[in-house]
Fold this sequence. Notes:
Blueprint: H1 2-13, H2 27-37, E1 41-44, E2 53-58, E3 64-68, H3 72-79
Antiparallel strand pairs: 1-2, 2-3
Amino acid sequence: MAAAEKLYSELNAAGVETLLDDRKERAGVKFKDAELIGIPFRIVTGRSLKSGQVEIVKRADGAATEMALEDVVSTLKNGLKKPSVR
C-alpha cells in the first residue's frame, strides 16, 4: 500500500489526475469498477512489486506492460500528453 500511495502522490504532483482504490475488495472487483468508470490506465502494484516492477494496463486496447516503479510517473505523464492543435 505504501508504494501505491507514493505513486498516487507523485502522479498528482506531476499533474496526472489519479484515483487510488484502497477499498477492501478483491482485485477483480476493483478492475471491473475501473473499467466501468473508464479509467484510461490501471497501475497494478502486485507480486512484481517485490522486484521493483508494476503492471500498467491500457484500457483502450488491454495492453499490459511491466515497468520499473521509478519510470511510471514519467511514462504516464508523457503518454497522456495531448497533441497540440494548429
